[in-house]
Protein 1
Amino acid sequence: MIKNLPLKKETNYISEIKRMKKAKNAIILAHYYQTGDIQDLADFIGDSLALSQKAAENDADIILFAGVKFMAETAKILAPGKKVLLPDMNAGCSLADSCRAEDFKKFIDDNPGRTVITYVNTTAEIKALSDISCTSSNAVEIVNSLPPDEKIIFAPDRNLGNYVLNKTGRDIVVWDGTCHVHEEFSLEAIIKLKEENPGAKIIVHPECELPVRMVADFIGSTSALLQFTIKDNAKCYIVATEPGIIHQMKKEMPEKKYIPAPPKDSTCGCSECNFMKLITIEKIYKCLKNEKPEIFVDPDIIKNASKPIKRMIEISKKAGFKQ
Ligand code: 13P
Ligand code: SF4
């Protein structure tokens, strides 16, 4: 019986999680910003796009999401018949919080006649108000898939929105939201690190502010950054995104050096997402054992929110994005 196990060590949790996964036909999906031990335990690791593609296509009865709430909600919207679990309901997202449904409704009314594209980093209610979803991987392709004269609202990340606007030259009105991790990188500290490590390349997530994007050697989503470090020939990288991704970079290319870009100011001195890092192995164990906390989304919201996500997955498939 699981209940009587003397679970003193992390390894006990891990072997029990593996056993329960099999017994319950459950899978663990983990974002690259999770801790290394969770990434190693997961059945599938990915960025936001790959995780939603995987949530839409799998044979499990239970999806345990090692990530944040909007990701688990997206999984529930795409697979309403499955049980979707999130080990800590406080694992929110400052970016999703920066766009509330009643304010966004007014924003849409104030900017009529525009196609509404929202980042998956939004609540289910915001998705239900949208025409197409996007992630940082496919935002440019999603915008370019629309006729050239189509006017667009892009929400909620103003940095990704401005990045897409500059890349596409389209008529886009951008919502003024940000992610507390990506807006906090210190340009001065990045330039200093570059001086100290002359051959290093600066790689940057598009949620970062313009001054940081301007010094980048490469800009891309977490999986694009990972792919870049695999294919590129530099020996050292200054990484301006949540440092969880460095775990995969080290696994893929252990001989290279990866320096996390520092924040302007933070209590921990690092750029970790405090929401992502709420998930632990112990919480995953308890969540899978008790099959809660469980994600529930209102069926009417599911009906409307699934349309923009499915449209995004369809366009991404055509554009050649793989899981
Ligand atoms: P991607 O997974 O699209 O790179 O987005 C990063 C992020 O902030 C997820 O919370
Ligand atoms: Fe949200 Fe930013 Fe954390 Fe991603 S890194 S979950 S966007 S707060």
Protein 2
Amino acid sequence: MIKILDGKIIAQQIKAKIKSQVITITNRKPKLAVIIIGEDLASQMYVRTKIKACQECGIDGQVFSLTTTVTQKEIINKIEQLNSDNNIDGILVQLPLPKHLDTLAIINSITINKDVDGLTNINAGKLLQGDKKAMLPCTVKGILKLLNHYQIPISKQNITIINDSNIVGKPLALSLTNMGATVSIVHKLTKDLTIYTKEADIICSATGVYNIINSSQVKRDVVIIDVAINYQGKEKKVVGDINFEIMKNTASAITPVPGGVGPMTIAMLLENLMICYQLNNKYN
Ligand code: GUN
């Protein structure tokens, strides 16, 4: 029987723990600043979910909504202002950004102790070097927590990641490599996806393409981590990259969509914020 890797329950436990920690803070509560640029509906929905999760745990969340016409300089000025604001512990710039903006320059202007997303070049560099103090991107940390919770081994495993982004694929590959896995990243230019999926003990998929792989492309008892959120059909049913019905007789475990990696990402954002809070309070 396929095992369902329930991220919702674990995320609830983590959030309850954070809430109980925040309650004990008698002075300034932790605070997250979220910058969102433009009108993208999915991004707006993600930001609402993040702020709601903060509020549930007693954490302050403030959203700075900027219009698509905002300039690079204005955004960086805003980030610099938040960098030096002692009431702000973490700064998150919701991605993707409108095309005219330089995403890397914007992300890298976040000061390291407020890099709650772990996306700055400094944290990415630390991860590359295997520095355990690197702030990990929330989705990556969430996947690792989920695998650890269900005692799914990583060391010596063949892991294929279908995503090469700076947010998921690359930091996930580095984290898993640091833990002793043999990792393949596949992407749009990969000639034959099946070569890599067929040998994988674990497959992590974040493509935005429903049905990206079927059961003939994986080996028996594979563990599937479905990172995507797609909307299927007229009813816009929430699905991932993987068709559960197709995989249920082949895979040994799978994360559901919704209720798998998504809630873990949010819980890890709160966990990272608490780390930032401690870092910032040390220097205040
Ligand atoms: N857009 C989609 N996922 C994320 C995330 O984890 N962090 C940020 N900043 N933007 C995102």
